[in-house]
From TrEMBL:
Subcellular localization(s) per the UniProt record: Cytoplasm
Binding-site residues, GTP: 166-173, 191-195, 213-216, 284-287, 313-315
Subunit structure: Monomer.
GO molecular function per UniProt: GTP binding; GTPase activity; magnesium ion binding; ribosome binding
Protein name: GTPase Obg
Entry similarity comment: Belongs to the TRAFAC class OBG-HflX-like GTPase superfamily. OBG GTPase family.
GN (gene name): obg
Tree of life domain: Bacteria
Keywords of this entry: Cytoplasm, GTP-binding, Hydrolase, Magnesium, Metal-binding, Nucleotide-binding
Function: An essential GTPase which binds GTP, GDP and possibly (p)ppGpp with moderate affinity, with high nucleotide exchange rates and a fairly low GTP hydrolysis rate. Plays a role in control of the cell cycle, stress response, ribosome biogenesis and in those bacteria that undergo differentiation, in morphogenesis control.
Organism name: Methyloradius palustris
Domain Obg: 1-159
Amino acid sequence: MKFIDEATIKVYAGDGGNGVATFRREKYEPMGGPNGGDGGRGGSIIVEADRNINTLVDYRYSRVFRAQRGENGRGSDRYGAGGEDMLLRVPVGTVISDKASEQMLVDLSEHGQRVMIAKGGNGGLGNIHFKSSINRSPRQCTKGDPGEEFELYLELKVLADVGLLGMPNAGKSTFIRSVSAAKPKVADYPFTTLHPNLGVVRVDTNRSFVIADIPGLIEGAAEGAGLGHQFLRHLARTSLLLHLVDLAPFDESIDPVKEARAIIEELRKYDEDLYTKPRWLVLNKVDMLADVSDKVKAFVKEFGWEGRVFAISAISGIGCKELTYAIMEHLEQTRDAELDTQTSGQQDDVAAG
């Protein structure tokens, strides 16, 4: 199934019911006072993040959502019933924007997070509200307010701690199969991965992290070439990027350094924040090389890389364990640093108060 990670929908909150102008007409009171009730409130559109939903595919086929209209008021002081709210469930990690203004409305990053995205209209007033000392028989009533309506753009960003970055056939799918229980499709042709795969890497009983296998990039991905431009956004939430490079390509005419530079250039073009994220270099398929150390040193020197480097073989598992432990340690240190920053910030606020 193709991964659907974006959708455009229209939402219509319910209109409020109309108020009515009625009067008491009883046997012993043929000319009674006003008793028209108010209209009911229109139903609202509410969006909730649900971790049991993985894609936005439901919103590809159903694009229009209308909440229930409020009932009109009736005589004998009877108010109209309110319309039922409509609940739309989306995956955790969904960002909702207004299609017209392109302004982000909400980022649903936690399970159970709920937001009213379109408010139902208020009900109209019945004529009992217009009675006064000089107007005993008011015939005024008001109509219900229209509900809010929007055209929304839904975009799903994968929630993962680590993102795998690399050209097609760099070995990303093989790596995620090697270190987690995820079973992405693996084959010897480009663009095997047509949608992001998530895998949970369990380092210890209570120590684990989520890794995302993002479809391969090609040059021009930031401008829309290939598949990569659709999925670069999934890397935005990750804390660490692993840049996988095929150090032993089947086609000897392929230059690993040139391909690695092309990936970095795509990152820079697409998003400066993404470009400056912590990034490690992972040189894959070292089991196919005789002089691993020399090849790794030569690549790092030509590439001009000064960050952390890992040489692994995803298919045989060489170096994978060491890499996953290093990732876990990095993530824990990052979380501790963020927690310290938040704590110190709260303490500063208390002291200032």
